[in-house]
Amino acid sequence: MKPKYYLTTPIYYVNAAPHIGHTYTTIAADAIKRFKQMQGYEVVLTTGTDEHGQKIERAAEAAGKTPQQFADVVAEEFRKQWEILGLSIDRFSRTSTPEHAEVVQRLFQLCLNAGYIYKGSYTGQYCVFDELYVSDAKPGDPCPECGRPTETVTEENYFFKLSAFQQRLEEFHEKNPDFVQPETRRNEVLAFLRKGLTDLSISRTTIKWGIPLPVAGNHVFYVWFDALTTYMSAVEGQTSTAGEPLWPADLHLIGKEILRFHAIYWPAFLMAAGLPLPKKLFAHGWLLFENEKMSKSRGNLVRATPIIKVLGADPLRYFLLREVVFGQDGSFSYDALVGRYNSDLANGLGNLSSRTLSMIRQYRQGVVPQPAIAEPPLAQPARDAISSAVQAFDRLDFSRGLEAIWGLISAADKYIVEQAPWKLAKQGEEARTQLDTVLYSAAEVLRIATTLLIPILPQTAERIWLQLGMPDAIDSVTLQGLDWGQLLPGQRIGEPAALFPRVDLQEAVDKLWQLEAEEKAYQARLLGQPEAPPPAPGAKAEEGVMQPIAEPISIDDFGKVDLRVGLVKSAERVKGADKLLHLYVDIGEAQPRSIVAGIALAYQPEQLVGRKVVIVANLQPRKLRGIESNGMIVAASLEGGKPVLAGFLEDVPVGARLK
Ligand code: MSP
Q1: From ligand 1's centre to the CA of 13, what distance in Å?
Q2: How far is CA 84 from CA 230, 268, 312, in A?
Q3: Which residue segment(s) compose the domain that 322 sits in?
Q4: Same domain flag for 290 and 376
């Protein structure tokens, strides 16, 4: 019988339709599920929607719907999004269901009975957007999470005695150093704990759209008490095939901004109720667009659907898990996405597959030959790649794991080019055994890479599996014992077909922006929000997705930004960072300034020397790749994130200020 592995994503708010940030977490969870299955676990993956609270009440009102009607529409969008991505979700939970409400009320009752809940009154600052009471704030102070002004509220509330768990939580995190991952996130949790915990208000009387508390009065649950409990209600009373209860969860996968709720509040609620705690949390980083978090409030979101339409679901999975180190923030751009599609998928995996299969057809009538030697040159690199990839995936270090697999693909390409099977085929009998070894090796690398890629590229892996003519069903393939030499000579391969046709970068990026504008308009209509005007016929794609104008600021605010004319004295690439250039820019100070700029994909270093640019001269210095950056170069940002430097038509002196 298989051991169980219960894995969750956050449940997503229904005030926004699904975007690529949600997709990122859910794709990663799906990849983990498939990997764990291949390790021999019975895996249950749950996701869902977080539907209560003021934010949603307000969004529904603006759309002229009841909160329930509004939540129904958006929840359905999430469900559909996971379906078109082909994600293997076992349970989609919604907080507005009676089954969930019952579990929330029960958890409350357990905490109440244990003496950890009391009634009190609260006057303080509240952020409606984040549904967060902000301690130590004065009227009008900004919310520490989103910067919006807080509102003053006074309410009779039920409080959870979070302060009573200070010591137990500290001990728990000390004894379980692996509970929060990655390590840097754990340090954040410890630092938060060290500041000291205060009791937490867990009910609201100002909101109607929520689960009622099982007490007198008009209290509904604070969203986080309600939302976190979904992890339990999703598998309420359920066991694995072997009869093992699914709770506690083996892994909660979350974004880093909701770490505190998961690492402190959630364990405290469970401790209070005397229930088992989840085994692990992994908080990944943010997808950034032009160095800012993608979010609805910033209006810089992209959606997954256009990418699925233009490139497919697997290329999106590959890009997200390869480009961004899991756990750290990472940039998203269409240029990088299409670039990787062409270089890694079309030229890398796709090319190895089509070339290997067509050579076996051409030279060996479609039958995998017997290699002449037991230990061909690719055997050891393949074993190394298996062990590196499996270890990396086990740590959820997807990008490292994929690097190892692509290292093997490159080694195979190199080997094929060196061995030149097309020449061996012409050399007759004496080269026959050598050609057998080359063809077997290429096919064996393809089988091994495909097996390792099942969790990341499930649809592609299945296609290659069939093209290779593998006898066993791909669903039954495990990682146990994966080794060189398991491909059986004599196997007849299937029909080769192109996996990733190359695309023209500019055409694909234009198409993506066009579909993105359409998807954005569709979502706005769906949510009953004012729609951006449609692009004029013949208008460039980017005009249809113009970012909204930022909030107004005063002239004094603008005066704080010191913009200067600078002259680029030198420029060079930053090692290991294909987007960065390191410049020295003269702005009339004693020494030119060191500035690191993300413009390397748009400009060659030599194009920049001697050019006048505009820089923000009073930004806090920061280090990028170990190099101090003392300012930022001003550039227009085009589609796909391509920068175009600001400049002047007239000659301007170095150091002049822009006001
Ligand atoms: N409803 C709460 C979570 C409750 S869990 C018990 C919530 N919802 S949310 O809709 O805001 O989703 C937040 C999650 O979506 C993040 O934690 C992360 O998993 C994912 N992401 C949303 N935007 C993202 C990025 N820009 N980048 C990476 N992940 C992102 O918080």
Answers
A1: 8
A2: 24, 37, 10
A3: 311-476
A4: no
